[in-house]
## 1
Amino acid sequence: STPQTLAGKKVLLTAGATFEAIDPVRGITNISSGQMGLALARACRAAGAEVTLIYGQVQAPIPAGLAQAVQAVSAEAMYAAVHRHIGRQDIFIAVAAVADYKVKNSHAQKLKKDLSGSPPLIELAENPDILASVAALPQPPFCVGFAAESERVLEYARIKRAKKNIPMLVANQVAQAMGKDSNQVTILDQHGETALPHMSKADTATAIVAHLAGLLV
Ligand code: C5P
């Protein structure tokens, strides 16, 4: 059985892909499957934590034994759900692949193909950064972020950790991570950089939780 390294800790997690509506049937999303976030929720639970999960679109089952699991599909809905639950959390782990932009001119009714032949224009507006907003709270929980990059993974991850002002960041390569059931991650924290082996997301999650617990003592 897993050592109870997070016993008595309250953990809030985000997982999965967000979905930004264009109209009632169409939207903008990404290839996140939610597996890494769900595996982390399970690993935190196994380590004795009280886990609240906020999830967008996921392609795997929600783990059993969570304190709460709330679906919030757009970035704004996810932001609101996180801030409703963030009080009294000890740890916040942002795994969700959140859209940087929403559709500014989303339509209440289904768009019809224009008979004049001109394609509709989709205008974008910036979404709030959930992780940065939690890290900026007066008394933030211990924040863990993820960075999925397609190139210059560690370089961008270092910048992201500094910019969002978070103690621990997990970096991975998009092609190895998103939509896959295994992963290879590097953990960045105040002590340096720790590369984990390529392994299942379940094992990666267990190792991330062990690393996190080590930073809390
Ligand atoms: O900036 P980028 O999206 O690459 O940062 C990734 C990290 O920030 C992830 O931990 C992700 O969950 C979080 N994030 C967020 N809200 C956003 C964008 C990213 O919480 N709007």
## 2
Amino acid sequence: TLIANGIMASINQQVDFDTAAIVLEELGYEARSETEAAQEEAEARRVEEMTKKWEQIYAGEKSEDLKPRSPVVTILGHVDHGKTTLLDNIRHTHVAEGEAGGITQAIGAYRAKHNDRYITFLDTPGHEAFTAMRARGAQGADIAILVVAADDGVMPTTREALNHARAANVPIVVAITKVDKQNASPERVKQQLSELELVPDDWDGDTLMVPVAALQGEGIDDLLEAVLLVADDNDFVANPKGTPKGIVIEAQVDKFRGTLATLLVLNGTLKVGDSIIAGTSHGRIKAMYDEFGNNIKEAGPSVPVSVLGLDEPPQPGDRFERLKNDKEARAIADERKLEKESVASQPAPALTLEDIFSQF
Ligand code: GTP
Ligand code: MG
């Protein structure tokens, strides 16, 4: 085939990839470079792992009952790289300005609309002290936006956040922020991310990287388009009529109203009056509020909601689920508490010499 194409090659001669690809095509095969093949395999593994994660949540639902739901997007990145400002611009709010020291210290859950489609956002802190919150934020999401400031580049928490997103098997979209700054260098960010095997699509990789200037509102639409493109490539589904289930985003005790827990519904529709268990907490939902504090009666898949009625604050990251009634919820909560106590009170197993030597 080479000779027929005018290349007088001998049997031992090396040909370049493009030539080999032409020959293979003529012979009825498709050529893939090793990097392409590795990328495709990694992507296939990611999809498989993510599917396993969702199957736990939809266990018991019939596949014909599963309907598309809006994507849940976690915003991750190094401290001060512009995560909250980005979200403020998307939602037309001013959360960043009101934060103590300009630093995010809890996970916030919000919804925004783009082209008539909802997207749920989880804002996470970038300060190095909040590793666990970033990990939980990534676990609860469908997609991660990795925020990297164009003037600062890849920093330690950028790498940590990338690892959380990879551990959670979620697809990643990169927002290169602060491109309006004098010393901004989006190209350097792309170079640094490529070294971490996150290769931009305009460099033949498969990661969408969108430059934004959040204070000016530039690039925001492109970023949301990119998120929706990735969402369309994945099937995010739930049964809105199934068993209400999801995860705890955060929880605190309100002096006047009792335990206020922010939940993200991932399946079913949670309603006022439902009895739920969340980790070792339980209770009947007395009231529900949306992100603006408005009273609501129910919340479907991908909707974040604050609820009153749990006996004590559950842990962020705990799974919650609706049960038949509060009696059942209390029984399971008591069982879990006992289990926890017995694990905590067990003496640590004595070390044998073998244990010690096995460490070397
Ligand atoms: P943590 O949550 O504490 O990790 O910070 P963050 O990533 O949420 O950063 P935040 O949005 O609070 O922004 C940090 C600082 O960067 C603020 O002073 C913002 O005004 C500024 N900033 C954010 N986005 C931009 C941008 O696009 N351009 C410029 N010039 N400044 C920005
Ligand atoms: Mg923030």
## 3
Amino acid sequence: TVGKDLTGKHILVTAGPTHEPIDPVRVIANRSSGRQGFAIAAAAAALGARVTLVAGPVALPTPPGVARIDVETADQMLAAVESALPADVAILVAAVADWKVEASPSKLKKSAGPPQLRFAPNPDILATLGTHPDRPRLLIGFAAETDNLLSNAASKRTAKNADWIVANDVSGDVMGGASNHLHLLTADGTEDLGAGSKEVLARTLLARIAQDLA
Ligand code: C5P
């Protein structure tokens, strides 16, 4: 019963983790499965949008009608996102690693003992888009928190110049799981998007986006 209300719109989605190399065979990663972001890309395409999905390393099929760019690191994800601009809407769902490692060009040997890794900050893709000359009209970030969910999400919205933050309580088994409970924080307040499968919540969020753009 949903119309194709996003026809003609370009929607950019990031999803999955990033992998930050330690050496040629080892990485620092996080537990993002990419399922919520892929479901959002699928829901956007189903509403008729042109969708670019920038995906970190995940084991998921590309949703129908979605143009996918695979990346590994946060630096690569930022470059792919910028190359995909302009977009009407950007939904940054990826769990980007906060730090990268000063990687060794050759494999670290176990016999040398535990390495002293040196970390450097990664670019914040959402904050970069927040002040970008080609800033999408509707810029949406996610906040995955185990504590003080809504207040942390509200701070993130202003700190990163996002229009909306989708707040995601990850204190349960959300990471990698099939279901989720989302709240939407806008400049006007907080809306409960409900609990359900990641696919159902993706459709709810995209319907809300279509309503906003109309
Ligand atoms: O600060 P935090 O990582 O909790 O912010 C989460 C939001 O910011 C998500 O939308 C995530 O995709 C985005 N983010 C990003 N680049 C980073 C870190 C987070 O785009 N380096």
## 4
Amino acid sequence: LKLAVLVSGGGTNLQALIDQINQKKLTDVKIEVVISSSKKAYAIERARHYGIPATAMSKKDYETKEQFEHALLEEIDRYQVDLVVLAGCLLMIPEIIVRKYKNRIINIHPALIPSFCGAGYYGLKVHEAVLDRGVKVTGATVHFVDEGCDTGPIILQKAVNVLDNDTAEILQRRVMEQAEWIILPEAVRLIAENKLMIEDNIVKIKK
Ligand code: GRF
């Protein structure tokens, strides 16, 4: 399975994929390219450390939104990938890409969708909202990307306890370590092994 991994920040979810591939826990999977929406993303350094092609493509470098969107599509097409993985990617994926790669784009969201998701719920904000609401369980979700924001068919979820003295940073770290870094590689594995079926927007795992 050939992957394009789209990132925006620290790249710890990318690192989880790299580690599982290098430890042969994730076989028949290759990251062909890492594309960052920000030049400063540490995720780019992580990719380069392992010799994975990495480019930064930010909207600011393009005259119009359309030019950026077509350039991003061309870059993804160039690598002839089977799956696009959004790993800590803050970019709303353009419609032309969502359509061309229907059910071949997955995203990791640091909450149990449909809770604490949608525009504006990203990074620490998600965990701040979780603490403000006082929920006792949160977690992460891997889902297929459709035209909406965090609205596509859910593939995997993993719950994480919220503890009394949690800060948003502590909670984010626990959700990453105990949920994100586990279910994102697991979802890629299920797709590599062709174990997923989608019926009426519900994902089922073949036995
Ligand atoms: C994580 O909380 C992730 O869930 C969210 O962005 C944050 C950073 O992810 N999507 P990463 O370390 O860049 O993978």
